Model the fold of this input.
Amino acid sequence: MRAGSRWKRFRRRLRYWLGHSERQRLLWEEMQFHIESMTQELGAQGMSEPDARAAARRKFGNMTQKSEEARSTWITRWMGDFAQDLRYSFRGMRRDAGFTAFTILIAGLGIGASSTVFSVVNALLLRPLPFRDPGRLVWISNGDDWTTTQTEHYADLRDLNRSFSDLAGWSGFYRAGDQQLTGAGESERITSVPVTGNLFALLGVAPAMGRSFTAEECQGKYYAPPAMLLSYSFWRRRFDSDPNVVGRKLTLNNGPVTVVGVLPASFDFASVFAPATPVDIFIPWPLNDKRKPTGNTLKVVGRLKLGVTVQSAQAELAMLGKQLTSQYPDRNPIVPWLVPLAQHVSRPVGPALFVLACAVGVVMLIVCANLSNLQLARLGARQQEMAMRAALGAGRSRLLRQMLTESVALSCCGAVLGLVLAVAGTRELAHVHAFNLPLLQSVRIDGSALLFTLLAAVASGVLFGLLPALWVAMLSLREGMQDASRGSSGGKRHAWVRDGLVVSELAFACILLVGAGLLIRSFLRVLDVNLGFQPERAAALRIDPSFRISGFPQQNAFIDDVLNRARSVPGIVAAGITDVLPLRDDRSWQVSAVGQVYGKGHPPPEPFIRVVSDGYFAAAGIPLRLGREFTERDRASSEPVAVINETLARTLWPDQNPVGQRVATDGGRRVVGVVADVRHEALEKAGGPEMYLPMRQTGDYAAMQLVVRTALPPDNLAAGIRTALRPIDPNLPVREFVTFQDLVDKAVSPRRFLVLLLAGFAAFALILASLGIYAVISFSVSQRVQEIGIRMALGASATDLQRGIVLRTLGLAAVGLGLGMAGSRVLSSALGSLLFGITTGDPVTFIEVGTLLIAVAAIAGYIPAWKASRIDPMVALRSN
Amino acid sequence: MGTGKPKADLLPGTLDMLVLQTLMRGHLHGYAIAQLIQQLSDDLLRVEEGSLYPALQRLELNGWIEGEWGLSANNRRARFYKLTSDGRKHLAGESARYRQVTGAVARIMGFA
Done:
């Protein structure tokens, strides 16, 4: 039959089914009419009225049966059966409330976890980015995945390329709290992103209110933007969702600025491009301003023209890059590197999400094995019922269907609970800003998550109901009745199925535990890493002056004032100023040693540059290795100096004393000291070369962070520092007070996220597996009460009995453990990229997990064993 | 579906076709359909009343006939059926197929 007519028929059938009681009544009336007509005809042939009626009825046959037959053309039989099974299932659930509650709880936890993880995967990997036609958006970096592009190159690429309908960009070097906003309430440090004027149009984001930047606004001065766009969250927080905010004139870094628009709630720039650093405003980036920051500063995205592939665009831009590099030798080299934007955003989290998805899948398998086991145990008690049903004519397939309906109904109830948990879980995740993961804020239960939950419910219901259902269907009538009459040994076959389930539960739990164990141990190793600085009791506060510093005397007076006041606060042990904080900001220059020759094959190293004041090393806890630190006397008027880290020292002057050597960069500086390497990019990654410049000798820094080391927990001192600094600059906003521990926590947060979830899953799996083993052993004990009674009557000691039962438990555990260990050994290689400091076959983890599982199994087996040894032989023998 | 069991006194599958063919004559209720089939076949074919109604339900479900309530000759409420255009098409197809099959059977049996 054609699909169209099949669909029509399905709709008609549904309609008939929905109105089935009315339809049945009418059918009845129709048949009544038929009989009536027959009666009349027979009457006309001379039969008496009652005889004619009886004859007509006889001829017509059983009306109920006929009407059922007729009805069955539209209500297929299974629908009716299904409704009946469902009713029966609910009745059964009420009768066996304990079992039902437990099943719903376990299934709910499993399904809730699955749906939450699915929502995370959906938001981070599956759902398209929240921009117009996101498939055509491409991330264009320079050489590798992260390096930024010079604005001049950006302008040329934008003009010359034929693959993109447009290119746009934003500053790769904006920092939290870059701008100071005054007017409309208390002065505040806010985070602004300088963007090219066409960025919003390119992404397909229209302001919710007002407009985007005009071409004129993009021609102004970099340090004095005439206009700004508010992010939705900032508009709500700072302006209380004021509908008249557009057109308001405020003061940004002492310059006038106008609010030209508010971006929509759906546009969360930070959550896509810079997770965990909320963005407050956007300002225009004037490409032509000579005073804007130089160097590789721009992050670039492009929108491909229709029909252009990333590969062909890559080929074109690579060629343009070569051409530009040779045409402008004075600029930085440009090697365009194209990645679809979605891939760029989600790639870093891919492996972790894959592991999470697998883990939750394994959790679901354990849940199913556990519930299957429970159902089987319950079947022991329901054997008589099933045998009775079979005796009354229920066919095998009918019994099978009934059992499956029961389990699916249970798992769907569990799914309702799971959905509640998942909604709570996703809401929690979306509102936690602690995790440095892209798009986490958009995690929610949406249509596809609902569909997933439904599928998960049905699939798990079928999965855990299948074994018991098959069992029932195989159960022959005779056997069932006999078994029931003997009250037990529910069959040896029964026992090995349940043993198998427990073994598989243990094996899966073992795999999860090994995975979680490896990640936890990596996490501990990461936390244990030598950071090069001491995060405990150190904190930073942004203190850029609200006035414009006009020269070295003014700058150094400000620095003196800040440091003196900060150091006078009781509880402050050390204080210093830096322009970048470890694990948060970066910039690098090429630095060459005086007296060395560099070339194409031997480029000078490119250390990360930090501009710091005297006292910074002590405040951050960075140990000095050689030479001296900066002092107050390193001023503009004295000899230009620098401090380098050990890696840079080794790179520039291997086997020589670096102190006293000179570097050619920044007008030439003499190295006066060597400090320890600092992990500034990630805890997992060694620091690379670094060079520190004294703040009093340079104006080339974008921020001033006061770093203090305290004797008390830093949070207690925030108020004191604020009071102490207020006289310097009454407008000094002191909102942002970051402890170094926060920086470390944020840096490890993706790992913490994964470890927390995986450890939770593993714990859940362990509990389920131990419950499973406990249930199986207690069941086998309860089946053997008589036997145990006899043994005890014959003189078996309690210890013997206990030993037997515990040994059986350990036997099961050992089989499960063996399988699980083998599986883990194979699967753990998938974790490779997520581990740190240990190998995928880390023996400590494997041994620990093995010990833990055996211990848990022993306890789970000992309880029933202990109970068994307290059986009173007389009672046991008399019962039954 | 297949819940309407073939009756011994009709060739399997022919009841639907006969009902549709009968309805070519106009709107008829169930009893009239049964009567007409019997009469037209000179009392050779007897539609078992009970199997008629499942067949009617089935035909209606497939969209080949449509039933509506009306008054019978002696003023009683009865359900009258009529052919739909889909039903006509289906009937044409069925009778062609039936002619082929019976023709083939007849040739083999040496009737023709």
Q: What stands out?
A: The helical segments of chain B are 14-23, 30-40, 49-61, 85-109. The two ends of chain B are 36 Å apart (CA to CA). Residues 1-8 of chain B have pLDDT under 50 and may be disordered. The longest strand of chain B covers residues 65-71.
